[in-house]
Amino acid sequence: MRFINPKTDFAFKKIFGSNQSKPILISFLNAMIYDGNPTITDLEIIDPYLASRVQYLKDSYLDVKARLAGGETVIIEMQVLNVESFAKRVVYNTAKTYSTQLIRGEGYFKLKPVIALTITDFEMFDNDREVISHFVFQEKKRLFEYPDPGMEMIFIELPKFNKQLDRLETLTDKWVYFMKNAPSLEVVPSTMENVSEIQQAFAIANETNLNPEELKDLEDRERYIMDQQGILRKGIEEGLAQGREEGREEGREEGREEGIALGMREKALEIARQLLNVLDNQTISQTTGLSVEDIQSLRSE
Hints:
Layout (H helix, E strand, L loop, with lengths): L8 H8 L5 H12 L9 E4 L2 E2 L9 E2 L2 E5 L4 E7 L6 H14 L14 E7 L11 E4 L15 E7 L13 H11 L14 H10 L6 H43 L3 H18 L5 H8 L3 H8 L2
Parallel strand pairs: 5-6, 6-8
Antiparallel strand pairs: 1-4, 2-3, 4-5, 7-8
């Protein structure tokens, strides 16, 4: 068997946002938000298109959107590329979903909580190694929570999850493993067979269950992501090559080997600055040859 990549928007919506996905989404959200506890018992999958009621505000597209039985709204987004200002976009979409619940004249008491669940295929928080981060409003020094904050943001950073199949223990472990590794599997792992919702997710993700049009759509989206990643890598390689040449020229002019190293480092720093809003520290370090400490220093400039 071959499984489609749940990290693409098409596959993510197919698995978690289709008509038959309700039990799958309930299990997934309980794992990601509530540590695997069966807190969510029912929900309604709704149109993820987030149209603003205020004319000049931007429209947004989210991967999956659900309304829980208690009235809370969960917006779920899978993000593969670390695009510029992505962190701000998450805040914007969360606040927009919260604020557009009301129409003119309605009281604030009608506002229901909004939870933004964001799964990233890159690292967002370099100073922390936990896979899941949960943000709420708190008092800055004494750290008590704001009463009725209304909004929460949860991030799952897939690159930080390194557990192997034989080490999966919790429902959360199994769902994160599914998100990260499904395309590389050929069968449903035995360690996941006791979770019926994950088995259903694998069934939907099985390529043999897709029609030709869906397969083409999936291939087009995966090709687009690979093209964007290729463009980024090419730009980095060309920049580094230019830096090496500038270093050689400076070395000839000064007659010293230090000129080569200096030119290469300056170019690497220039490229790294351009990548700060695109890649995580570790990836920038591996790409440019700079140390992680160098990248951290650039971020603090």
